Amino acid sequence: MASHQPDREDMAPFLLRVFYRHGTFHRPDEFAARALPPSLDLYTWPSCTLDELAHQLAAERPALLPDPAVGTRLAFRLIFPDARSIDNASHTAPRFMAKDLGSVVIGDGGPGLDVSAADDDTDMADRVSPVRQRGGIKDGLRTLEGSKFVVGDYVSCAILPPLPDGAVAPEPTRHIRAGPSGGPPTHHGRRDLGAGRGRDWGAGGFPHGVPHGEWRRGEALPDGPDRGAWGRGRNAGRGGR
């Protein structure tokens, strides 16, 4: 995978868990279950783009894509826990939230994705093309860190093959349900107050010692007995999602 940022030479990649489904996205409440949906473990960097993520997914599990893969849309969502829904006393499952990241279409405006050549030095732009812009940035060029991703968050990928007439499938509905009950997120479910951790946080699968009060992702946490287990190592002052 080509390096787009010099920090990749100075830092080790992290493990990203990408959950996949054909035809639509996962519901956020599916991530509160003990049995999680099928997923891939990919090593990447915060500067990873959606183009690169699509490339990695296709290279790691080519059988997930139709043959030929040209015209397949890969849509991505960020999945993260809402810390305000975590009950430290009862260790109940947290509410999970979702945020649309964007989508790419394989071969849109190019020769498509040759998964047999996935590890060569060909530029990703020649295989996977961004399909639209959000906030002035083409989807395929959006990065994980630019979407406020924190190590421990999940990514959900909806794999959408071309329609029977050959047209590119539209993105899944943007209506996002949240929480074990499927209800809408409350005003407490703000991403900037969430905790960037996956399901396998602590013993028993849920976090311990989450500090109470108003605090933002990436800020130094108040001193406490469990702070060592929650070292965040991120810059302070992260904005809201």
Automatic annotation (TrEMBL):
Organism domain of life: Eukaryota
Coiled-coil residue windows: none
Basic and acidic residues: bias regions: 191-200, 211-226
Residue ranges, compositional bias (Gly residues): 230-241
Ranges where the record places region Disordered: 175-241
Pfam families: SAP18 (PF06487)
Membrane-spanning ranges: none
GO CC list: nucleus
PANTHER family: HISTONE DEACETYLASE COMPLEX SUBUNIT SAP18 (PTHR13082:SF0), SAP18 (PTHR13082)
Protein name: Histone deacetylase complex subunit SAP18 like protein
Species name: Verticillium longisporum (Verticillium dahliae var. longisporum)
